[in-house]
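Reviewer comment 2.1 asked that we show a complete input and output for one of the modelled complexes. We chose the fe (ii) ion case, as it is the one discussed in the main text.
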Amino acid sequence: MSDQGSFYQRDRSWHPPAFTPQYKTSILRSPQYPLLSLENTISELTGPVFGHDKLGPLDNDLIRNFAKTGDAIGQRIIVYGRVLDENARPVPGALVEFWQANAGGRYRHKKETYLAPLDPNFGGCGRVITDEEGRYWIRTIKPGAYPWPNGVNDWRPAHIHFSVFGHAFAQRLISQLYFEGDPMIWQCPIVSTIPDKQAIERLIAALDRENTLPMDALAYKFDIVLRGRRSTMFENRMEGN
Amino acid sequence: MVQKLDRLKETPSQTAGPYVHIGATPNWVEITGVWNEDLGLVLVAPETKGERIIVKGRIFDGSGTPLKDALVEIWQADAQGLYNSPQEKRGKADPHFTGWGRQPTDGTTGEYKFETIKPGRVPYKESRLMAPHITFWIVARGINIGLHTRMYFGDEEKANGECPVLARIEHKVRVPTLIASRSEENGMPTYTFDIHLQGEKETVFFDI
Ligand SMILES: [Fe+2]
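Response of the prediction step:
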């Protein structure tokens, strides 16, 4: 029943606005006209799905999926959690993609120029599809902080980028995961594009000692929430107007 | 205290950053041997029904410079107007057409390019039809939340004139920002859809 209606409109005051001058690149890349607000049509209520057959056994293990001579170097961690919708229901079959810098804060990318060295055993990408209860987990190393050209001395806090496909194109989302206790979070011009402190806290993964892999990896819990849908009983009534 | 609604807030967006390709198209940035192939590069197979077309263009910032680090995703119906999605309840879409594509903009020219098919029309509400269109989602460094827009087809004037979504655009002068012009390139029908993030020609983006 509740998998049929249109999605709740995005709360644009909760997300970062397009124009955020402290993050300089946004200045010339932010639309200035108002967005055209529309009820979802079938073009947004549908979306691609990805079968588990698309994935290989090491896709969610960034420590091993690019390894040449041994495991990637760095603090070994598990990141786990659930993908839910705004109605607090699990989203099964969601493809979640991750990318990140290595333990020294260096990305494996042809346009990356930071002096920290590449790790020959670390590629920096991973992906996973949520199970029936919306659960996922990956194993990786904790990425390093890195400097970036914005101000002359701006640094990104340690973070993992992620991209999520739910069941509909309207749910498409890209964001970044930060780590509990990192003071750099509160000094970052990209983090601070999000106006609400509570919203920022939703991007901070919690250290979870109970789910540590003994003698292997620390665990961080990170739930992701995608847009939720109206109930069709209301939707049907709306159509009468 | 009143009863609680027990609703969650959506995870807030953050920019995809300059290295989105590592996660989305790793083979394209020479991270090989992890995925066999990058997802979304190929939409069309020999068995796919419909007219083969090229969709290409560039994304310009407020200074008129094309973005060389963006990622473009498209989502569209098949030639019959059906989406290849479990949420599609009107019929079974062409099994040889996923309808979803993903391409980076070129690191030198800023051009993106998809080989796809021309989609059929799909319904709006009360069985009125929308004009054929392709949904676009654009992310890049400096874009704090992914931008939704649509490409319509320049040779579908009648359908475009009837489209209830295009009709919702108050400033008619902005409608052409969503309409791609058709030409012939190397024997293929080619639609050029340039996207302008700012300025006089700013593309209409949707909150949808
Ligand atoms: Fe980053």
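The mean pLDDT of chain A is 94. We note this here for comparison with the apo prediction described in Section 3.2.
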